[in-house]
Structures are given as C-alpha cells and as structure tokens.
Amino acid sequence: xxxxxxxxxxxxxxxxxxxxxxxxxxxxxxxxxxxxxxxxxxxxxxxxxxxxxxxxxxxxxxxxxxxxxxxxxxxxxxxxxxxxxxxxxxxxxxxxxxxxxxxxxxxxxxxxxxxxxxxxxxxxxxxxxxxxxxxxxxxxxxxxxxxxxxxxxxxxxxxxxxxxxxxxxxxxxxxxxxxxxxxxxxxxxxxxxxxxxxxxxxxxxxxxxxxxxxxxxxxxxxxxxxxxxxxxxxxxxxxxxxxxxxxxxxxxxxxxxxxxxxxxxxxxxxxxxxxxxxxxxxxxxxxxxxxxxxxxxxxxxxx
Amino acid sequence: xxxxxxxxxxxxxxxxxxxxxxxxxxxxxxxxxxxxxxxxxxxxxxxxxxxxxxxxxxxxxxxxxxxxxxxxxxxxxxxxxxxxxxxxxxxxxxxxxxxxxxxxxxxxxxxxxxxxxxxxxxxxxxxxxxxxxxxxxxxxxxxxxxxxxxxxxxxxxxxxxxxxxxxxxxxxxxxxxxxxxxxxxxxxxxxxxxxxxxxxxxxxxxxxxxxxxxxxxxxxxxxxxxxxxxxxxxxxxxxxxxxxxxxxxxxxxxxxxxxxxxxxxxxxxxxxxxxxxxxxxxxxxxxxxxxxxxxxxxxxxxx
Lengths: 303, 303
Hints:
- The structure is a homodimer.
- The first copy, chain A, is an alpha+beta fold.
- Chain A has 8 helices and 14 strands.
- In chain A, the strands form 2 sheets. In chain A, strands 7, 8, 9, 10, 11, 12, 13 and 14 form an 8-stranded mixed sheet that branches. In chain A, strands 1-2-3-6-4-5 form a 6-stranded mixed sheet.
- In chain A, a hairpin with a 2-residue loop joins strand 11 (about 265) and strand 12 (about 270-280).
- The mean pLDDT of chain A is about 95.
- Chains A and B meet through helix 1, strand 3, strand 4, helix 3 and strand 5 of A and helix 1, strand 3, strand 4, helix 3 and strand 5 of B.
C-alpha cells in the first residue's frame, strides 16, 4: 500500500466530521473552530523515529529534539498560523541515558522558546527503539487558515529560501547544509506574511520534497503545474535532483493570484517564482515541459 | 530515572506557560482556553507500543485500535470533558498487512463513533515495531475541568465499577475480564455527572493501578488518604492485589465533599466509597492503617 492507498482506507473508515471540525484528514493541519471564538485552531502531529527519521550515531539528542518540534511547526507555518502549544510523546530506548534525554529537551525547548510554543503535556514510555511524536496546536484568525486546495489556474507558484540544502547536509554532514538539515527554521513569520499581505491562495510546507509536495498541492486543488528548472533556487552545492526531490527543507511552497506583488526578500529570505498553476491533469507537474515524477519521500512506496 | 525524576527534568527545561494555557504538564490533560470562547479545551496524548502495551500474538488489530483511542478518552473523562476529535499517529511494522491496518481503524473508529470523536488527522510511517500515539481533544465549560489537585482532607474517595478486571483478563484471556482488558469503556458520561452533579473536588482515571493513581492524586492535592480493603470493589475472580495494583481498568477515581450524596449506581455502574482524604503526609496512602506501596505500572521504575 502506498501512503495514498492507506489514506484512502483510513478515510473510508472514519466517521463524518463532528461539530467544530472545519477540516479533517488530508492537509498539513486539521482545523477546529472552538464555540464562540474569533480564532480557529489548527492541529498537526508528526513522528520522529530512530533509524527512520534519525540515527543515533549521526544525530545528537539536541538535534532530534529540535527536529521533532520543527516538523509540526513547519505545518503550522504552512497554514499561516501561529503556534500555541505542543504535546510531546517520547518512548525511550535503552541507550538513551539521562544526558541524552536532557539534550533532547534542551533542543526541543530552545525551539519552543524561540517560537512561543508552550510544552503543555505528553506521554512517556520505554521501547526498544526511540520513538517520538509531537502534536502542535496553532491559532489563526477565524476562516483565514491557508489550505492546499485553493490554487487556481494562472496562479503563480513560489518557494521560500533555497532547496536541496537538507539533503546535501545529510550527505556531507558539514557546513551550512548540515545546519539546514539539523536545525531547520520553521517559516512562521513568513507564513503569516504570505497569508495576510500576499493573500496566498494555497500553501504547503516542503517536508517530503518539492516534486511530491507540489504534486499534492495540485491534486488537492484539482489543477496542474508548470515549473522551470532554470528558476529553481538551488542551495549552494546541492544538485537539481536534491532541490526537486530532497525533502526536509521545511521551506514554504505557496501560490498567489497572477498579479500579486512579491518582494524578492522577506526578512532576508529569498522568495522565488518557480512556475504557474495550469488547467492540466490534476496533480500533474511539468518541469520544462516534461512530466516530473513525484520522487520525494513516501514511507509507503515500495522501492 | 523514575518517571517522576524524568518529569522533574522535563519541567525544569520547559518554558513558562504561554497565553491561554491554563494547566500544563502533570495532570491527565492540559487545559487550553481559546480567546473569547465559553469552553475550555483539554488535551491528552497516549502511546500504544508493540511489546510494551500490546503483543501482536495476543491483541488483534481491532483491539489495538480500540485501546489506542480508549486511553486518551479515559483521560478526557477524568477531566469531566466531552471528546471532540483525535489525531492518530501510526508507525506500521512489516508484519502489519492491509487486513491488520483495516482492523486497527475499524476498532478505533468504532469507539470514535460511539463517543462522538472525530478522527481529524494524524501521521503515518513505517518502523520495525508497531507504534501508535493518539492525541485527543475534549471540551468542558470554561473553568470547570476536573483536576487531580483539588482534594481536601475529609473528602470522600470513590471509584467507579470494579477493579482488577483488566489485569485478570490479561492473565486468563477469557470471559468478561478479557473484554474489560480488550475493549475498556471510557467513563465519559460518568465524568460529566461527577463534575456537574456530584461537584467532585478532584478526579483521575485508573490507568496505572489504584495504588499509584491514588498516590498521584494525593501528591497533587498535598494530602494523604486512608482506604479500607473490605470496601474495595474487586472484579469477580480478581485478587485484591490485582484490584489495588493491576492498572488499565480505566475506571474513574474521584473525591467528593464529605456530605455529597452519591447514588449506588450510575447508568448501571457501581460507585463505591473506598476511603477518605486525610491531613497525612502528602502522597501517603494507608490501606487498613498500613502504608500502601504505589505498586502500579511505572515504565521508568527499575524492577
């Protein structure tokens, strides 16, 4: 089963959305509208598993903790929301001693402090391999959350920053690329800017690679996309393959009305127009006129 | 490190509570107050791990799915709240085929439907061993959530149902005791009754065993407790040891003002007075006059 097949199975099973649930399974976050509140709440949860998302020889505790929270915060950013709190579930492996646990929480809480995220609770257990799951709640003005299904033909496609750095960093384990992999910075203030000022029509965070994430945005929006290789903002030293399929860059991918005015930089971060939404086959992305395989990371693809 | 030591370490690391967070780490749920809302939201998250919380030879997928959600719903019940939605993180082991995954969601969504809980999102991955983490959100009238720190000397201590059944069921794997273990029913309507009608001073769900959970309630409330063995509502066939230390009964433990009037049965469920809160050493529980060791389940105790 691919992840999509699995999601189809899950959706066929789950009961209809209850009161207050504005958006369920399928976007970066679920959206919940508390009774009488002017704000919507958005929720996401992400696992970080030993030997799947990290290796203990490569990733010190501080980096595992930072990344465990960063994954969810990046989803919050993609909704144009601000983080409020998180819940941290942690199953400790026998090798994880007191110093490792302390480092894990040091990394996680450093990012929590920087982003105004309260660590409100969690669960603890022991297991053979270390496993962590972090749920994050964010808030956004009522009805204003950015979704992945709002892109329309003619909309311009943008990405923030430079792509492929995280994949390069995991390969070389040094320099700026390693930092990009080890301590990604969720684009929270950019998410708010893109929602409030640029009035984005859709957004997604680049967690699994541009090719797969853009495919998902197009599929949800019932549209196609055309992008140009020469416009791709490739991270210094990375290959175009890493930029297209690398994953874990945690930059924002967003679409704007054709005439939207976009600054070249936002808080020092480059914003690059890489293409346009089309009336093509839903989900189909053309790179320089040729179909681009959604080659990003999918746990459930047989390889 | 014991679980308490670990919690101490975590608390020393986490930043102060941000706006809207009424209660953080340490109770069954965290409490969040959305801006302008008449309701508080309560949040909990619980892991269910292969070979820790279940074994695949013993527990079919449907039971693992049911129990994965039941753990969180029981925490929601203990706050006197009503469930709204859940997020389901699932890491699938190689042995978990399509039929198992389908059964898992069948079990989880059966309980979700019965309790009005929307499955709003989650995360999927593959791992060596199956791991699941379910976060649940509930709602409760503003300021009314039941906590574990409100018990006062003189308050009566009550439990719902009969204790030790889940431990007996795991041992015998048959009959009513097995059902008690396999498909526990979170005491959601009782939780609301206890909060609204009985005006409980404190509550907790019996997840780790009465001896440990009552110790926790007393510690949080800065009080002691005296309970009587002869008053213990022991599940038919279970030992007093299983009733005191067994865990996973998911009944409610609650305290009431001395003169509160309590029906013997609530919706067919027995409510039993088992003792009284005292001015004794905070956290110390006396059973028939002798200190009762907190012998329930603690992942982090060295045994």
